[in-house]
Amino acid sequence: MSIIVQKFGGSSVADTSRLYNVCKYIIKEYNKNKKVVVVVSAQRKYYR
Fold first, then answer.
1. Closest by CA position to 6, among listed 16, 15, 32, 17
2. What is the pLDDT of residues 1-48, one digit of tens each?
3. CB–CB of 42/11 below 8 Å?
4. What are the boundaries of each domain within the chain?
5. What is the DSSP string of the chain?
6. Cβ-proximal residues to 44 (8 Å cutoff; 6+ apart), any chain
7. How confident is the model at residue 46, as a pLDDT?
């Protein structure tokens, strides 16, 4: 079984919709029977 390391941070985890997309990437690799290690760094701040 392969091990995949995925790192996400900054704008890719800045809000809920982007976090959802990150989850899709994680699930996609997991469903390929790979061990998935996920590293999440700081969120980018969006001022609205």
1. 32
2. 789 999 998 888 888 899 999 999 999 999 999 999 999 988 777 666
3. no
4. 3-43
5. --EEEEEEEEGGGSSHHHHHHHHHHHHHHHTTT-EEEEEEEEEPP---
6. 9, 10, 11, 13, 14
7. 63
Q: What is the pTM of this model?
A: 0.78
- Tell me which residue of 35, 30, 18 sits closest to 8, measured CA to CA: 18
Alpha-carbon span 47 to 10, nearest angstrom: 14
Smallest CA-to-CA distance from 44 within 7, 13, 21 is with: 13
Sole residue written with tokens 């996609």: 28
Tokens coding 41: 């760094």
The Cα–Cα gap between 21 and 13 comes to: 9
